[in-house]
Amino acid sequence: MTNTTIEVLMMRINLSADRAGMTAAGRKAWTIIRERASAFTRRAVGVWAALALSVLALPLQAATFEVGEKVFVPMFQPNPELDGYAVGFVDQVHDDGTLTLKIDEVVTGKNKTLAGTCHPSGGTPLAGAQILSDDPERIVIEQRLDADEVMPYRRGSQLYLKRENLSVAYLKYLGSGMGMTPDRLDVAIRRANSVGLPDMATAMKIAKKQVVSTQGRGFPVPASRALQKAAPMLDEVAEMVESHPGAVKEAARILGGTTPSHRDQPIAAVIVRLHELLEEQLGELEQQSSDPREVSGYSVDDLLAIYTGWYRVITADDTQPFQNAQVEYYRERAAKALESGEWPSLL
Fold first, then answer.
1. Could you count the other beta carbons within 10 Å of the beta carbon of residue 323?
2. How far apart are CA 95 and CA 285, in angstroms?
């Protein structure tokens, strides 16, 4: 008897009882049926619950590979601009789950394309690989790897291209930024999250805040307009980077000249770009008037709020000094300069 059959029978008996009453024998029969139905239902629920739990408890299985299958070996970095990869075929599948691969395409580091090749370098899954042919036109190497270091070619190449598209957006923003609309930055944020790059997602969120604040939707606007909403934007960015002290320190080292400029740490690179943009925009206002007290559309307090917002960013919201000084020091210095008719320094 199925659960559905019992439920239908119970409904019929119940309806009959409602219409004509029920004899003692009928009531007894009804009680027996109801108890058996309840027991059956409890057993059914238990079975389905156990089945659901067993399914949820199944470990995520690594992809299985066959001899001769084309495979992709990811050599990904926190900054997708530095991603590398290798392509080859499965030569042997071992009992311990490892694979011996014959690899004939290796791309590492910058200036990479899916068609390019170069020699493997240390620090990648290919470190220590046996070189079977070092012909620059057709390199062939052999390497034994765990299966979880290898991906099916189609899935791996698609993931690489997704990361590559993210890298293009990142470099575009750090460059001219032309055409990097809020919508395009939203796409970059989603891509960063989908490929497991939280720092890149944060960097792109900062970039979006900056772009939105200019009111130009990714296209050039005069500084007189671009800076109107800069102060609250900088305050929001300061709150965001407070939880990324390492990135702020790296940005401070780059801006302080103790570390060469680089793009390897996305949040740090975007903070440095933010400084460049502010310097350009404030410089444009300075061209309009050498005296900040006479800039059209901006009071001294408005300008001071922009400078203070930046000082909050470069000190991780006043949680770590920049060049041994806190926000208040830089704010007072900027206030004195503005009140004296001089343009302050951002650093």
1. 13
2. 70
What end-to-end distance do the CA atoms of the chain give, in Å? 81
- On whether residue 15 sits in a domain, the answer given is yes
Residues 278, 214 share a domain:
yes
Non-local (6+) Cβ contacts of 98 within 8 A are 144, 145, 146, 147
Could you report the per-residue pLDDT of 92-116, keeping only the tens digit for each?
999 998 999 999 998 876 644 433 3
Task: Please determine, for residue 233, whether its predicted confidence score (pLDDT) is greater than 90.
Answer: yes
- Whether residues 153 and 33 share a domain: the answer is no
DSSP summary character for residue 78: S
Which helix (H) or strand (E) segment holds residue 252: the answer is helix 245-256
- Gap between the Cα atoms of 79 and 166, Å rounded: 10
Q: What angle do CA 211, 345, 321 make, to 5 degrees?
A: 85
- Token pair belonging to 242: 């407070």
Give the residue carrying structure tokens 């070619």. 153
Does residue 81 sit in the same domain as residue 204? no
| Residue span of the structural domain in which 143 resides | 70-159
Q: Is residue 99 part of a domain?
A: yes
Two tokens at 172? 């575009």
Q: Which of 109, 282, 174 is nearest to 119 (CA)?
A: 109
pLDDT in tens, 45-96: 443 444 333 333 333 345 789 999 999 999 998 889 889 999 999 999 999 9
Please tell me whether residue 258 adopts helix, strand or coil conformation: coil
User: In sequence order, what are the beta bridge partners of 314?
Assistant: none
Whether pTM > 0.85 for this model: the answer is no
Q: Which of 181, 173, 105 lies closest to 136 in space, CA to CA? A: 105
Q: CB count, 10 Å around CB of 58?
A: 7
- pLDDT tens, position by position, 36-45: 545 444 444 4
Amino acid at position 190, single letter: R
Number of domains comprising the chain: 3
Q: How far is CA 250 from CA 191, 259, 315, in A?
A: 24, 8, 11
* Residue 31 pLDDT: 53
